[in-house]
Design brief:
Order of helices and strands: HEEEEHHHHHEEEHEEEHEEH
Oligomer: single chain
Helix content: 10-25%
Largest sheet: 6 strands, mixed
Number of helices: 9
Strand content: 15-25%
Distance between the termini: 57 Å
Amino acid sequence: SDQKVPWTLYEAKKFLRDLGLGYVPIHACKYDCALFWKENANLENCSICKEPRYKMNDGKGKKIPHKILRYFPLTPRLQRLYMSRKTAGDMRWHKEKRVDDGILRHPADGEAWKDFDRQHAVFAQEPRNVRLGLATDGFNPFGNLSNSYSMWPVVVMPYNLPPWKCMKQPFSMMSLLIPGPQAPGRDIDVYLRPLIDELKELWEDGVVTYDASTGASFRMHATVMWTINDFPAYGNLSGWSTKGYLACPNCNENASSQRLRSKIGYTGARRYLPEDHPWRRSKLFNGKADDRARPSELS
């Protein structure tokens, strides 16, 4: 009854920080070269392009950085999932309550999940270890206004939860907020570094976590199983160019692309037909028969 709404923004931020809901501001280079973080935390100029860190620095304490990356630490929010008995039980749903009848209802029913369990048996022995999905895309926070601005949130989702919870908003965790005004493009890996470093620690060392459903602590590990993106963002995250003659990641270097006037067309769909199919011998498509084997499937 004595709780009051914080009167100032500072008090509100302090209140959220005490709940573990704060974020870490990390200054970034104007041209997305590097972060002023860890070994670069005290630098006044970018270690790569030598661009000044601040766009305003009057020498009297007032410093305004060019860009600020907002980083929301992932570990405390994963630990919070085990602080409630209900969600702690749901985090074991994929192992204890899922019906394995060959029907795909949840990522745990998929071959990728099962193959991961075979390759990393020690990780799979503890059902409370967290499997994550990662999604990112750009948006204009100012709506449909004339000014162009591209801000990129990076969101992770815990797939241990049952299918009616794992993709719902309360369990989607924003881990990074990458600033604009332009999209980071292939330099997105610079901004992903804080999250990647934390994920490496969660994979290799883990973190001691209290489980409210059992009343005991365990060492929680985590891994990213999938990324969810549209095709342009996929090109940025994976490093595989999704433009030009080798845009298809499945065809890889064996792409069937050719120039069609001012555009690039992909005309090799007949490779997927059976070898004795009559359409393979037909010249009605592009004036040629196609006797190539189907491209090898990537793991």
